[in-house]
Design goal:
4-stranded parallel β-sheet; Rossmann fold; 20 helices
Length: 616
Amino acid sequence: MQKDISAILKSVSKPARYTGGEFGQIVKDKQKIKTRIAFCFPDTYEIGMSNLGMKILYGALNELDYVWCERAFAPWPDMEEKMREHNIPLFTLESKDEIKDFDIMAISMQYELCYTTAINMIDLAGIPMYARDRDENAPIILGGGPCAYNAEPVADFFDIFSIGEGEEALCELASLYTEMKDNGTYTKSTFLREACKLEGFYVPSLYEVSYKDDGTIASFEPKYDDVPKRVVKRVISDLNTSYFPLKPVMPYIETVHDRIMLETFRGCIRGCRFCQAGMVFRPVREKSAEVLNRQAEEIYKNTGYNEISLTSLSISDYSCLHEATDKLLAWTNDKKVNLSLPSLRADSFTRELMQKVSSVRSSGLTFAPEAGTQRLRDAINKNLYEKDLLNAVRLAFEGGKSQVKLYFMNGLPTETYEDIEGISTLASTVIDEYYKTDGRPKRPPSVTVSVSCFVPKPHTPFQWEPQDSLESLRSKQMFLAEKITDKKIRYNWHEAKVSRLEAVFSKGDRRLSKAIYVAQQNGMRFDAWDEYFDYEKWMEVFDKCNIDTDFYANRRMSYDEILPWDVIDIGVSKSFLISESKKAYESQTTPNCKEKCSGCGANKLGKEHTWCPKKK
């Protein structure tokens, strides 16, 4: 049983992060539970409690009467200091029990810069960080989330990874664990051998990796004949019948997304060549407008939230969007519940949508052209034209908006300084469009240009690409700053050093685990937070571990080399990704999935669509 923590809570910021007891939390009788799971999020409570995936999996696991899934979040440094000072191991919010006494410690890996925080949670729980050092009494350490699609940099710390969608998969894993415990056949090694046979589970210790003299991978092979050569991601076929939380936990403190989050569909039809989510979440599967509305009403009754956000990778591509918004607005207007439509595409923005958005929102709108010229937008397969953007902002201005935010990237493959200057030109064109628009607001316009650095991601057509050097990224950032002279255009850019570290881990292999371990031992965590990110300290760690960061971030990989993430099968074929990579250099576009099936391979997974028939 956990020690009393009330004494230390008075001396830390935001103590409600650690108290639990929220309305909607799930508490069970421990005497009736066979398997206990600690669901851990390697960031603050406010961010973790805003993650829809965590809410879904927390609820789905607790639907099993023999499982109790509880929550834990990374303590902020002031709380961690107190916990270590008073010998208080990491604990869950529901029971306050120590995580080292649980059966499974599940860690959601949402972004590469959470790696040190994740293994710090293992250490703070009093569990050996390396999988090879843990005995039979230690919990199974399970990883999941987007970073599991290349788990190699942290593979040495985890026993098993969930690949793909977890609502059904994690319940199957918990069932297998419980059954083996019940019938007396459980040992950690036998469990992992059986678990790897379930669809969607990767056990790193069951694979042998060797390297060539040049540092590239020579072989990546299973150690045993019954271990799959490739792990196929898990996919939920029918979102209408799959689990969705209708009684979410209600935080005591404000979170990043303090609202009802309704998942409209999974996957993306667009095929942007830089976008990992657009590839790994294929194929598209939609939720019906009826189910969406029913879930919204139920969650509203159970929470009282005054805002509903329709979530997806691109809400404009939801085929039931107009029907769904009509159903929702039929009751949300009367109850003064705001309807939020994020991730709108400029080429799908209509006056009707504008009116629906305007009825509940007074802020500006956000669009993502990604590149400043049509040539580069074609190269990255954005399939967006300047006329589409200008039509969208014109509708926004006619509707009373005066603020527009535009997202771009620099360092994209084939990019030139002409493309960078095109960002400034496009922003100025939006300002000009404002003054051409009849019925515009009388206040002056504002365009915010936000530019991030391109990071090559696994399982994308750009996975083989090098990242621009740090010097080149900075040079392009300063060049654009000089080109933007209109005070009505505000320019923000992402710190290139952060993107550099992200690229190293994004394309990394198992040899990086040593650096992650050393960094954690040196007190490094919360790398995604500006106040704790220390690039120079990271470079010192890499030097100490004899790791050449250029090898990962700045090297062009060859099409025929073995990639660290080739062990994972996302459904999209490598031949399709290579074809898309080559088309980028010709600035050739690929139509979206509704217009034409381009044979990516993902139609072997999931539910059948009229535009993407499932192959038998």
